[in-house]
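Q: I'm writing a short explainer about Transporter for a general audience and would like to include a description of its predicted shape. Could you first generate the structure from this sequence?
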Amino acid sequence: MDRMASGWINGFIGVLIFSGSLPATRVAVMHFDPLFLTVARATIAGVLALGLLLLFKAKRPSRREIVSLFVIALGVVVGFPLLTALALRHVTSAHSIVFVGLLPLSTAIFGVLLGGERPKPAFWLFSLLGSALVAGFALAQGLTVSPVGDALMLAAIIVCGLGYAEGARLSRTLGGWQVISWALVLSLPVMLAAAILFRPATFSGIAVPAFVSLAYVSIFSMLIGFVFWYRGLAQGGIAAVGQLQLLQPFFGLALAATLLREPVTWQMLAVTVGVILCVAGARKFAR
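A: Of course. Here's the predicted structure. Afterward I'll give you a sentence or two in plain language.
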């Protein structure tokens, strides 16, 4: 029970940190090209991760673990950041945040396929209900906003769920902070070269909030958040703790409304409340 409680606490902290990712990305893409933003945040986080691995003399992953680390890197280091950055050129962060409600279902499915977890049937009922609320919102409003933006967000959710599940599975043997650190370091050479290649012609004229947002998605979204998130998933179960992501839209909408002054409709709030209620039901029948 202590391990389960610790998993939910770590997972909750991770969700809180990730909640600021989309609003921060929305600010950053107003000044940075999405491709540069993706490789720049991975480069900054990769350099920090390399320092951590050297400082704590972490053991090197095995060949089999390296394959998993590349899958994780493709999902959460490259795939999700790039796809969301592209999507946020078409939709607001408030609109995109609602799609995060689909992440628990995506993570749970990959948790079953990769991690061998077997939640109870009632778990899938609550998980599907929460996802259906989000999908219904997207169908009601997304097609009139940007089909391209919604398609990119859906693709981002799929690759992110894969990265979460594989990272959680590997964290059981390699350790949470080591998993994300090695994934970042393995992708660092390519990310660094791409950051130099796609850097802006000049950084003059770029507003301070854009640099602050870049720092946030690099340090917190790309590194610190994953330390808590992977540990939480490994301790409490991928499918179970993954349901905490249903809370992420609530925090994200609050940030979008307060920091970006983006409109938050009553439909967005209703969907958020609905998926929060699904967390309680999914948690009860997770195992």
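A: For your explainer, you could say: The chain has a mean pLDDT of 86.
Q: Perfect, that's easy to follow.
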